[in-house]
Please model this.
Amino acid sequence: MAIRAVVFDIGGILELSAPEGFDPVDQKWAARWGLEPVELNGRLRDIWARGAIGLITEAEVVAGIAEGTGTSVAEAEGFMSDIWTVYLGTPNAELTAYFEGLHQRYLTGLISNSFVGAREREAALYRYPEMTDDIVYSHECGIAKPDPRIYQLACERLDVRPDEVVYLDDVERCVAGAAAIGMHAVHYSATATAMAEIDALLAAYPGGGRD
Model:
């Protein structure tokens, strides 16, 4: 058996967010709208869930936020602008360069529990389509990790078996989901450690999808 493909998660891997995550955004806008953050999240829970698997458009997200918070579309757009800033985070330059380097020899892919609108923003900011063979977004395929179907879909689109794939994710349940279908799953905790673990797997199962 040889490794033919390397697949990464995006958020928390190639894109790094501040430790406090979306909390400051929720606090800012909840206060502005006279709500508690927990109440704001409760009102928007269905919108977030539907947007994550592509059941609503970006325009419907904004309209739903405006309706759910009793505010204007302009206010809802401002809120979403802040959400996207946190969502997109900052680049993990070292790991991104490593991933790009792998693409020279291996098939590469990305799997993301995403939100409607993510592909366009990430393509513009991070150039992912230029550095990988395929990207599976939950909002486009309607399946979210750790559902085994999303990992299987990624394998099908790369034309590889699960045991020919190294997969990297920072969320334990998503790592477990990949391992459950037979991928060589690595749990990300730090960039240097992740690269070392991946390199060890590539050395243990030499191959390459571009041979």
User: Anything to note?
Assistant: The chain has two domains: 5-17+90-204, 23-88. The radius of gyration is 18 Å. The first strand starts at residue 5 and ends at 8.
